[in-house]
Amino acid sequence: MAIWFSRSRNIGSQLQKCMKTREFLGSQTSWTSSPFQSSSSNVTSPALFLPNLRFNSSTISEKQLTSDSDDDPQVQSLDFPGGRVPYTSEMKFIWESSQNRVPCYRVLNDNGELIRNNNFQQVMSKEIAVKMYKDMLTLQIMDNMFYEAQRQGRISFYMTSFGEEAINIASAAALTKDDIILPQYREHGVLLHRGFTLLEFANQCLGNKADYGKGRQMPIHYGSNKHNYFNVSSPIATQLPQAAGVAYSLKMEKKDACVVTYFGDGGTSEGDFHAGLNFAAVMEAPVIFICRNNGWAISTNISEQFRSDGIVLKGQAYGIRSIRIDGNDALAVYNAIHAARDMAVREQRPILVEAMTYRVGHHSTSDDSTKYRALDEIDYWKMSRNPVSIFKKWIESNGWWSETEEAELRGNIRKEVLQAIQVAERTEKPPLAELFSDVYDHPPRNLQEQEKQLRETINRNPQNYPSDVPV
Amino acid sequence: MTVREALNSALDEEMSADPKVFLMGEEVGEYQGAYKISKGLLDKYGPERVLDTPITEAGFTGIGVGAAYYGLRPIVEFMTFNFAMQAIDHIINSAAKSNYMSAGQMNVPIVFRGPNGAAAGVGAQHSHCYAAWYGSCPGLKVLTPYSSEDARGLLKAAIRDPDPVIFLENELLYGESFPVSAEALDSSFCLPIGKAKIEREGRDVTITAFSKMVGHSLKAAEILEKEGISAEVINLRSIRPLDRATINASVQKTNRLVTVEEGFPQHGVGAEICATIVEDSFGYLDAPVERIAGADVPMPYAANLERMAVPQVEDIVRAAKRVCHRSVPLAAAA
Q: CA–CA separation, A308 vs A319, rounded Å?
């Protein structure tokens, strides 16, 4: 019920200003399907899906309207709250879908070769590229081994990120340490790239006393203040409006940092997606919304999730600059996020990035995806569109990586992961006091009493309390 | 000072004292607040500190929580707490639990405030009382002011508190005027969270109440006085943490208890108080606890029906008499 009248006049005049300085979404006087360019050379335009709408000046005896009448928005338009709107006497519905889907941006082909005629300037150093590859491989092996550990009963639950290694690592590589991450739950590669160790991961999964979460959360619900990685929260998409809130705080601080939040294709169905994007646009908050469109929300295929052309077009609906990228191409991800961050911070605006990919693994260890999708579909993506292999081919072609280094790295990672799990398993569980702490800033009297009573009960009946858990 | 003025002054002083405090909600800025609680604040602090939000409780609650995660101190106003249901996941799963789940890494110094409970003639979806809902959730603090002094002191305490606080106001109390002490007018005035107030001392029966029902209970106490029953009226002020010590001490003195609340009876605040008395003061009770609550129906609109769905002064008087073994039969509507 907010009363927008007094603001609508401002927005109207702002829209007019926009039109002069920047190509806007169509012009006010004609809706032609022309691609728009922005100032940054890395951003290419998605094809607008609006069908050709031109004015009929037949019923009104005013001056002839040309498509260049950007300079004269007063012609054939009406005042409404929110600004001037051109009108037409031709009734035409905007069709629910366009002929052409929005293209996705990619740099490397499936063989790891640079696609011809692209404008990619190789600014990536060997150092960054090799670190990216090492992290992608570590992520893949770590996921494999933790998954196996769950199958063996050593941890209770796990979620892998197979097929999304490029999205995880390349996006993290394009950001700075000050950028704040609000994850969904399939982005532990981002944390890995920032320096979270294998042991820190294992500690959280085992819920021992070295876990930063003090054993309070299920496995994969990582969180680390020092890595600017907010805690994973199970309800879907709640992080989206929260990200806008964090970005608002950053904006008030005027810091050279932005917020980056991740979500899947399924998460875009939540009400919070609408609220988060809408708000971020209205508040002009520096937040990058990264959608990992991996085709599946547990067993729900995207054809059952939405009827739009994916997520990228939804950004436009909120007035948010958006791009669709090939999420399995690490270079494309790196470039796009790099550009997005630049825009978000410099121009203080939200950006939406839809990274197309495939969820190779099961949703989690509680899921068997072969029950609802074809084995050869999974195999195809695993073998022919594997982001780790694709990037490996590229760095090898630059002479930056060799098979011996590969074998050595694989061996080392395996050993480290195994060791991490073993050490984490042997580490003590959190002590009893941690049951009652952090509910509030200071424990209230009732919790203090309960803890006291519990300790007395344990002292009276030591045989009922596990001996390997500290009191 | 009216409750409205008290809340307004509390917001003003806390926003002035700490630049991280900011207010957001529907109509809080240009409209001066749906109930004029935030009058004048937009002019004084500007649109960066007083945000008019689009209509999405889930949205602005989520944003508030996110801002609090990062270190700001938001005050999120709901037009009524009925609409907060659209944001309840953010309140419970994010705000209440984050400090615990993150082991202290993410704390949420946020205040959710707005009118709660029945107003006058607004029907079922505008009259629900949420004290018991939020009161059951660990991680939250829940406050229910009655007088202007309560409103000032508790709101200031809530804003300064590092934990998420649910601040349940009452629309019908906004316009009521109460005397305020000089101490309460001071800008550093604060009431402790978790302490109830004994509004009226007595010897024969304890009546616990919160928010509007405190007024009803005090009126009932006057009537009972004339009939020779001296009632002690406790203004709970804080639903979570509940001041069990004060309630128990009072019952141990009077040996009888009547709990009064506007909300629905099952799993209500009265049920919790009853349980706590049974646990700690069972031997002191001379009569079973009487529980006065709203009727177990969605709030009807028609004025005569609405009157019967909400506790009235006579209901409290009758309950107190029953508990004191004066034989008065249960009224058909109670």
A: 17
